[in-house]
Amino acid sequence: MSIYERIVTLRAPEIADLAQLHAWSNSNELWSQLVGWHFPYSTRSTEQWIRSRNDNDQINQVFVIETADRELVGTANLVDINWKNRGAIHGVMIGNPEARGKGYALDAVMALMRYAFDELGLERMESTVLSSNPRSLHFYTRKCGWTLEGTRRRAAFRQGGFVDLNMIGIVRDDYIAHAQRTRYWSGHAEE
Description:
Distance between the termini: 27 Å
Largest sheet: 8 strands, mixed
CATH architecture: 3-Layer(aba) Sandwich
Number of helices: 6
CATH superfamily: Gcn5-related N-acetyltransferase (GNAT)
Strand content: 25-35%
């Protein structure tokens, strides 16, 4: 199953995506703005990751973000899904710098929120954003309706120093209110 939305499709990674995913997995510019541990990836390890994914994994799902003209522009995920507490951790990455600022990330996040809340029955999504990446914090809190819930001080080591991690989240009711306020799904969205 793919998730088709206004301007993007979220689908499972395929071997045909290998070259692009491998390039993004080794981009210093990209990884300097993302939370998480990073090592250099070989083509072989990227291929192994794609082949070893379990599309029926009930806890961790990764999607590639594809435009209407089938251009791969990034990835998104729902991971550590907790079915008892109805929550998940989320992340999005637009790997192609020329694709940033064109609404692809917004459509992907809105699509994943609708899928998580309306299809999977989740109550909460959360993520962390590096304090050195204010653009992402603004994106989530202003464009996607998320809330800054706290700060973990000096929690991430980047480029020789520690930076804070902003903890962000959204609950189902806030998503519904945001989607209605922005009229995102009505086709007349305020961008």
